[in-house]
Amino acid sequence: xxxxxxxxxxxxxxxxxxxxxxxxxDDLLADGELKGKALKAMVFITENKKNPAFxxxxxxxxxxxxxxxxxxxxxxxxxx
Length: 80
Prior knowledge:
The structure is a single chain. 55% of the residues lie in helices and 5% in strands. The chain has 80 residues and is mainly alpha-helical. It has one domain (4-76). Helix 1 (11-21) packs antiparallel against helix 2 and helix 2 (36-50) packs across helix 4 (64-76). It is globular and about 25 Å long. The mean pLDDT is 82.
C-alpha cells in the first residue's frame, strides 16, 4: 500500500498515531501491510480531520476493507 497519506500528516497527527499504536510511525507498516491498530489509527486521523466528532471508537467500527479503501482513496485524492 502506498502511504502517501503520511506526507500530509501534521506533527500532532503523527504523535497521535504513535500514541495509539504504541510504536514509532516508522513501524506503521510491517511486512508491507497496515495492521489492526495502525489501520485504526490512520482511519481515525483521516476521518477526524474532516469531522472532529469522529472518535477512535468510530474508527474501530470500520471493516479492514473499508479502512484500506479509505486510505487508498485519501492517498490518491488530488490536493486542493
